[in-house]
Amino acid sequence: MNTHISLDRPLRIAFIGAGQMARNHLSAIQRLPVAATIVGVTDRVPTIAEQFAVLAGARASCSIAALLGETTPDIVHICTPPSSHFEATHAALDAGAHVYVEKPFALTSEDARGLVALAARRRRLICAGHQLVRDPAFETLMARVPELGTIVQVDSHFTFRPGVAAARRGEARALGEQAIDILPHPLYTLIDVLERFSPAGAPIELAWAQANPADLHAALRAGDVVGRLSVSLRARPIASFLTVVGTRGALTCDFVRSTVIGTANDGTQPLEKMLNPAVEGWQLASRTAVSLGRRLRAGASYPGLSTLIEEFYRAVAREQRSPISPEHLLQVTAIFEQLVERIEAANCAAVARRRSPRGSPAPRIAVTGASGFLGAEVGRALKRVRGISRAPGADRSHEWVVADLGRGLEPEAVAGVDVVVHAAAETAGGFDAHQRNTIDATRHLLRAMRSAGVRRLVLVSSLSVLRPPRTYSERQDESTPRASDPRRYGAYAWGKTMQEDIVEREAQALGITTRIVRPGALLDWSELPGLMGRQLYGRWHLGLGRPSLPIAVCDVARCAEVVAWCATHFDEAPPIVNLMDPALMTRRDVAREMRRRGWRGRIVWVPISLLSLGMAAARTIVSIGRGQWPEKLSVWSVLRPRRFDSRLSAVVLEAATSSDADDVAIGA
């Protein structure tokens, strides 16, 4: 086994996991002064690995074993979900590679000790993605800590808006999983400071902790120094900061702005009391401007990431110690494991309170995308379903099948059900993502249904499939044809249009009868629908058009009721329904109803034609700057208001609302 890597040749780099974080790593590596070559990648989703390989100029392997055997990397980046960190890191170390693993390093102290021991036996280095300790603001704070005298306490505060739809809806298990995912950042920065400035040899202990699925508060102790940790998915505004308090003052590192704020004085003198707020206000304004300019020039979305990776690569090449010590990794993991236990205990208690009683009938309706924004609501409306998704959802009253429809679906996943509700689809990304997760996924589902003998499908589509109106006054209904050239209207409209086309052409040939529900913009009343506007700053929002313009929207819970009704009253449901709330047909109606429900936003209305022109010009400038001709996109056709005939929608909404609750609950 090679035990020495020289700077005389580029380091050979491989990736296990090829998602967005891996792309951030790749971008950081491409800016490094250290010579490095990406030699391979693998991911559980082959198409994602192949896309990453094209970006990196590398080869995609079908498995971890194949990657390590085919590429013999010097360093492996682990960018997989936390549950697979141990397996991937162990395999890479065992193959003789050094390892950079994303946070958390490990989920348990036992796993962490095993990896540290294996790395020592193999004489390999390991590093975790603790990039905030290399954020320039954090390093500035550490350099100034001696100004504060004897350290008394350290406060680490982190608030975050969940990216997972189920967590945003407040589902206990999803909230808990999101909290666990973000916990390492505020924890490792806090522990790093305690390790540096607590009395020599003082152990770091968890003194107290309180958790619910969305919030965690804890107190750590290192000798006489107290560390306070606060992590919340509910508190606002979004923030990430660390404050060090000493006997001669305090300083705060703001990770969102990458700045250090504070005067580091006692604040006891009259002049200090008067001037400190003014000085800190000036620091906040001026240093935020400088930090923003620095980030724009560097193009770095994760300050400290490039620096930490570069330090790790140099340590590997020069046979030095890892920039993140094994001792620190073990300490962080030990506290992390204890805190996770508190979160999971709170999570289990919350789920138990919601769990359905035993003896519920076996599910006869399967819902794809059952952990998504709409799919989870459909599951609630049906009370008990077989959920099909990439990961189990939060509702433990359901039966769950873990499957990636983009890769295929075994017939057993839908065997024994009467109806399939197909709510899974791509909602972001480019054409490749929509090809895989909307179009290919639908084909795989239809084939699995045919093999399993399931003959009824409720497809959740979108109003975006309809061709644009030919005149301003045209009123579209269920007979309006789909767009003939959907690529012009963006990846989402294209994917949903092709999905409907596949169902229309192929389902009948497979003996599958379909019902199609096309919802308008779905509302959970917390933010404006995308076709109506976007948040600008605080309460202020950019509104598209003017208040009197039409828009088609539907409350997500009411939409779920309609989808559930179509599944349980399949023979009564219309073949296609364009679903919208007849009481909310203009932008003014939507804004008024949102305010009635507690929304406090203010809207600045901008003409759609002006916005379309600006977007088209911006796309053209960016594309030409990249040496490409801009891809054709009819921005005006995408954003222009449409008028709909809502009569059928009103009938179906009324039927779904007034249907027998027991009927809907069991799918009889």
How many extended strands?
27
- Corresponding CATH superfamily of the largest domain: NAD(P)-binding Rossmann-like Domain
Mean pLDDT: 88
Estimated structural class: alpha/beta
Number of domains: 3
What helical percentage do the residues reach? Answer: 40-55%
Enumerate the spans where pLDDT stays under 50 for 5 or more consecutive residues.
Answer: 1-6, 354-362, 660-668
Give the CA-CA distance, first to last residue: 64 Å
CATH architecture designation of the largest domain: 3-Layer(aba) Sandwich
Spatial order of the strands forming the largest sheet: 8-9-10-7-11-12-13
The total count of helices amounts to 21
CATH class term of the largest domain: Alpha Beta
- Percent strand: 15-25%
**Quaternary assembly:** single chain
